[in-house]
Write a structure and sequence with these properties.
The protein has 429 residues and is an alpha/beta fold. It is built from 13 helices and 15 strands. The strands form 4 sheets. The chain has a 7-stranded mixed beta sheet with strand order 5-4-3-6-7-9-8, sandwiched between helices. It has a 3-stranded antiparallel beta sheet with strand order 11-10-12. The protein has a 3-stranded antiparallel beta sheet with strand order 13-15-14. The radius of gyration is 25 Å and the shape is globular.
């Protein structure tokens, strides 16, 4: 007869022998400053390098508050609470719910938020699993204007719950730090390929612009989850940072399903000619590059987001506000201004997905790489759309085919050699 195994006996412990609510672990004080705001990180996980991502989130929140005259923020994985503090002070949020599953962080979080509101009327702290908290907010119809989920790795189980808890037309700030999977390394290993399939519904292989693929994988996963709920998402900006690495996207959640065939498809890269192309769902089984029929020359990843990574109008508002706040002057503020300007350039609708690394062009041309600005000027002169890439400093975005990029690099090299020879002749004379 079948019977369940008995659980091991647990020795009885008198309630008086141990406290029911043990006191929180004491954290050593580690004062920090960011954008003029003082806060303490204690023993929490904190990265100075992530300040740019926090800047972008605060600017977005402030723009939302200005246009909607209301701002309720849920910081689902708040760490020490610096993001929550900045939403309260800089974006003037009406209310911030700061949540971190680690109860030992409670004292540090509360201490930081008290700097914005000693009476504790504009903020609250909770210690729940992020998905559970988001689900509870949905069930209680406690919706938020902005939900910031600064998660770790390829964790995406929160996406559907977050979309249920955010207001329609509200903002969802999503994160991935899984650069290994988004880079498509060793996709034949089941445990790696399964991670991107399970988390974002995409099979990713290595491509020269893998960090942009990481952003498109993250947005594509959100597109998929939104579609299940009858919503669609619009990327307001997408941001990559090499430390971590970190992939972040600010998405606006709107009502109405997104046509699956539009901007959600498959991306290919040909190792023979170096060109990239998007394939729609109805082209599955018919993928090939026009340059050749060499088996294995076409690398395909997907399905991924193939639409724009940014909204140029929203980025322009962010840049104006950053300038108004004095964030784009000398010193550390100069970086955010340059970043936003590059993102605006990247928003040109003529530009395709992906970017081209200067080293790849030089390698195909078999010459030394010219200055990046020289190639941009040459491309502009021939009528191609161009921009720098905020993702890779030594890369460009352009609608110019690789073969013409190679030709222009060779011409620039010949011009440089000719100029050097003339200068040498003048010096000898």
């Amino acid at each position: 007869m079948f019977s369940l195994p008995l659980k091991p006996t647990i020795p009885f412990t008198s309630p008086a022998s141990k406290p029911l609510n043990p006191p929180p672990k004491c954290c050593k004080s580690q004062p920090q400053t960011e954008r003029g705001l003082s806060f303490d990180i204690g023993d929490t996980f904190f990265r100075h390098e992530s300040s740019t991502g926090r800047d972008l989130g605060v600017l977005s929140a402030a723009i939302y508050k200005k246009s909607h005259n209301a701002l309720r923020v849920l910081d689902a994985m708040c760490g020490c609470g610096v993001r929550s503090l900045r939403y309260l002070v800089e974006a003037n949020a009406d209310f911030v719910l700061a949540n971190d599953a680690n109860q030992e962080y409670g004292g540090v979080i509360s201490g930081n938020l008290e700097k914005a509101d000693m009476e504790k009327k504009r903020w609250a702290v909770k210690h729940l699993d992020a998905s559970r908290l988001l689900t509870e907010c949905y069930l209680e119809r406690d919706y938020y204007d902005l939900i910031d989920v600064d998660s770790f790795g390829s964790e995406s189980s929160y996406l559907r719950a977050a979309m249920c808890a955010v207001k329609l037309d509200g903002l969802l700030y999503v994160t991935s730090t899984d650069g290994y999977s988004s880079g498509g390394h060793r996709p034949q290993h089941n445990f790696l390929s399964r991670s991107t399939l399970a988390a974002y519904g995409a099979y990713v292989r290595h491509m020269p612009y893998s960090n942009e693929i990481g952003l498109r994988m993250l947005i594509g996963g959100a597109v998929r989850e939104a579609s299940v709920l009858g919503y669609h998402v619009v990327p307001l900006f997408s941001y990559y940072s090499y430390h971590g690495p970190i992939f972040r996207a600010m998405l606006q959640v709107r009502c109405g399903k997104f046509p699956i065939e539009r901007d959600y498809s498959f991306i290919s890269y040909c190792i023979q000619c170096g060109n990239s192309r998007a394939f729609s769902w109805d082209k599955l089984g018919q993928m090939r590059c026009s340059c050749n029929d060499v088996p294995g020359s076409l690398i395909v990843s997907g399905p991924l987001w193939t639409g724009p990574l940014h909204s140029s109008s929203f980025l322009s508002e962010m840049l104006s506000l950053a300038e108004e706040w004095g964030w784009t002057g000398n010193g550390t503020g100069k970086h955010i201004g340059a970043l936003l300007k590059t993102m605006i350039d990247e928003s040109d609708p003529v530009l395709p997905f992906g970017y081209i690394n200067m080293d790849e062009i030089a390698s195909r041309a078999k010459v030394n790489s010219p200055p990046i600005n020289s190639l941009l000027r040459a491309l502009d002169k021939e009528g191609y759309a161009t921009s720098r890439s905020h993702i890779a400093s030594n890369a460009i975005k352009t609608n110019c085919p690789m073969v013409d990029c190679v030709r222009l690099v060779k011409e620039l090299r010949r011009s440089s050699v000719t100029a050097d020879e003339k200068l040498h002749s003048v010096i000898e004379a």
